[in-house]
């Protein structure tokens, strides 16, 4: 196994940071790694907004659901689904931007963000930094759109805290290979693997929290998915031009 693959497998979501700053040359290398990610039709339907201003980070920490590590991290990056540049050029050409009326535009933009995010995450961790993804940028999208002055056809999809880890956190176990991988047809018989994994996570969480949290994986995920989260996404997407008509 290569060192790079081992690094990927050792990923941990880091929420505790020292006061050490992210070196500017490292930040540029991380961002350039994201820029070189593949994208649908080479449309590069994403962009990046880097937040360093402390006041703004504190505002974002609250808007993202009260996540203090956003304010603590020296750098907070927001990955944006971004059709602004091409929509502007299409207007110049006299073409209608019909793509934004289809849910496919959201799929394409979100996938492009995910690939770019993965590149940035791997680059950051290869340089010795810790990161944590922040889906909470979609909790209060209208307020974040206003705070960051995002134009039409731009939408906040995912955030990333970057910093130097304080302390040391163990790798959280993942579902076993057999529960995640199907061959030729979808495997609907993963129950035994999930049951075993539930016990693994209960043990991991109990150890991590000194017995305060002993929920299994399925219990924890079900507690979130039993209700609708990020309820403002649909309407705010429409306001940004993603009408989802087709």
Question: What's the number of structural domains?
Answer: 2
C-alpha termini separation: 45 Å
State the CATH architecture of the largest domain.
3-Layer(aba) Sandwich
Q: Helicity level, as a percent range? A: 40-55%
Shape: globular
Strands in their spatial order, largest beta sheet: 1-2-4-3
Low-confidence stretches: none
Helix-strand pattern: HHEHHEHHEHEHHHH
Binned strand content: 5-15%
Structural description of this entry:
The protein has helices at 3-9, 24-35, 54-63, 68-72, 84-93, 103-126, 141-148, 177-180, 191-208, 217-225, 233-239; strands at residues 46-51, 75-82, 130-134, 154-163. The protein folds into 2 domains: 3-171, NADH Oxidase, CATH 3.40.109.10; 172-226, no CATH class. It contains 11 helices and 4 strands, in the order ααβααβααβαβαααα. With 246 residues, it is an alpha+beta fold.
Set down the secondary structure blueprint.
Layout: H1 3-9, H2 24-35, E1 46-51, H3 54-63, H4 68-72, E2 75-82, H5 84-93, H6 103-126, E3 130-134, H7 141-148, E4 154-163, H8 177-180, H9 191-208, H10 217-225, H11 233-239
Antiparallel strand pairs: 1-2, 2-4, 3-4
Describe the structure concisely:
The protein is α+β, with helices and mostly antiparallel strands and 246 residues long.
Tags for this model:
alpha+beta; 11 helices; 12% strand
């Amino acid at each position: 196994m290569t060192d790079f693959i081992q690094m990927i497998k050792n990923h941990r979501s880091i929420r505790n940071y020292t006061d050490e700053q992210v070196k500017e040359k490292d930040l540029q290398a991380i961002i350039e790694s994201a820029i070189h990610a593949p994208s649908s039709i080479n449309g590069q339907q994403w962009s990046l907004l880097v937040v360093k201003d402390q006041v703004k980070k504190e505002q974002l920490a609250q808007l993202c659901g009260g996540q203090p590590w956003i304010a603590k991290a020296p750098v907070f990056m927001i990955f944006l689904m971004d059709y602004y540049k091409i929509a502007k050029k299409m207007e110049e050409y006299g073409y209608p931007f019909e793509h934004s009326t289809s849910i496919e535009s959201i799929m394409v933009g979100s996938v492009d963000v995910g690939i770019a995010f993965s590149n940035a995450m791997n680059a950051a961790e290869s340089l010795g930094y810790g990161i944590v993804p922040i889906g909470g940028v979609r909790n209060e999208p209208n307020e974040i759109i206003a705070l960051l002055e995002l134009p039409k056809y731009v939408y906040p999809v995912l955030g990333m805290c970057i910093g130097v880890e304080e302390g040391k956190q163990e790798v959280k176990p993942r579902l076993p290979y057999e529960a995640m991988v199907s061959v030729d047809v979808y495997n609907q018989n993963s129950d035994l693997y999930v049951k075993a994994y539930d016990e693994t996570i209960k043990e991991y969480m109990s150890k991590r929290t000194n017995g305060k949290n002993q929920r299994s994986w399925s219990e924890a995920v079900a507690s979130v998915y039993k209700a609708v989260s990020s309820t403002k996404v649909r309407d705010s997407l429409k306001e940004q031009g993603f009408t989802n008509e087709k």
